[in-house]
Amino acid sequence: MNTVTRGPVGRAVVNGLLTLAIVLALWWAVVNLTGMSPYVAKGPAQVWDFLVAGEDAAENRAVLAPLLARTLLDAALGFVVGMGVAGGLAVAFSLSRTVEAGVMPLALLLRSIPLVSIAPVIILVTGRGTQASVAVIGSLVVLFPALASILFGLSRASAQSLDLVHVYGGNRLTAMRKVNVPGALPSLFAAARVSVPGAVTGALLAEWLSTGTGIGGSIVKFTASARFDDLWASVALITVVTLLLYNFVQVIENLVLTRMAMTTAQG
């Protein structure tokens, strides 16, 4: 592994391990120092035994694995739709102030309304239990932070590079394709990193309110039936997987931007 690769990967691994250590420490403190009932509260050791070391660990993983897979598929759907819409709107806003003036107020209005408040309307329109409701709810969580980040990146294009495109007869669309979009890669990756946990949150919310599947839908069932080991294990699994996905995007970001001689968000 060369130096270019080892540096970004090493930083991501260190950041991921540090974050995981902090999460585990906070988890242990909440369970052991707040006086919660051991019957309800399960710490890292109990969850490890439930999923890995215990006699029934294989059976427990077999129960939770399909739920985790469903949630990750729902999160991927929200991530792809949200990032796609955010990128398209950002480019449209940058190319046309008229489009921005017409659409941005609606986007700001939707951003100001709590998603839980409008989720019933979304479910009513798209249908309860449908993938359309998952896509809309998940993409709304992703959309607004990603849109702001990508817009910021597109607006920071080099003026000299834009002038060069215009001197050689290029139009605004050519400048966008050859200058603005490549220059916005750091902001695009930053949006992707932020959107990963947002997409997971949106998937859990959609599963809770609409589909009743995946980890989001099962958490309510685990609580109602006092299956607290399953509950804490589900939360631990989705948290760890989200951290891994976040750091995976960070590795890709650092590798791409390092090879393009661009400054990464992680230094």
TrEMBL record:
Keywords: Cell membrane, Membrane, Transmembrane, Transmembrane helix, Transport
Domain of life: Bacteria
Primary localization class, coarse: membrane
Location(s), subcellular: Cell membrane
Segments crossing the lipid bilayer: 12-30, 75-96, 108-126, 132-154, 231-252
InterPro entries: MetI-like (IPR000515), MetI-like_sf (IPR035906)
Domain ABC transmembrane type-1: 68-250
Membrane topology: Multi-pass membrane protein
Pfam families reported for this sequence: BPD_transp_1
Record family assignment: Belongs to the binding-protein-dependent transport system permease family.
Name listed for the protein in its UniProt record: ABC-type nitrate/sulfonate/bicarbonate transport system permease component
Species of the source: Isoptericola halotolerans
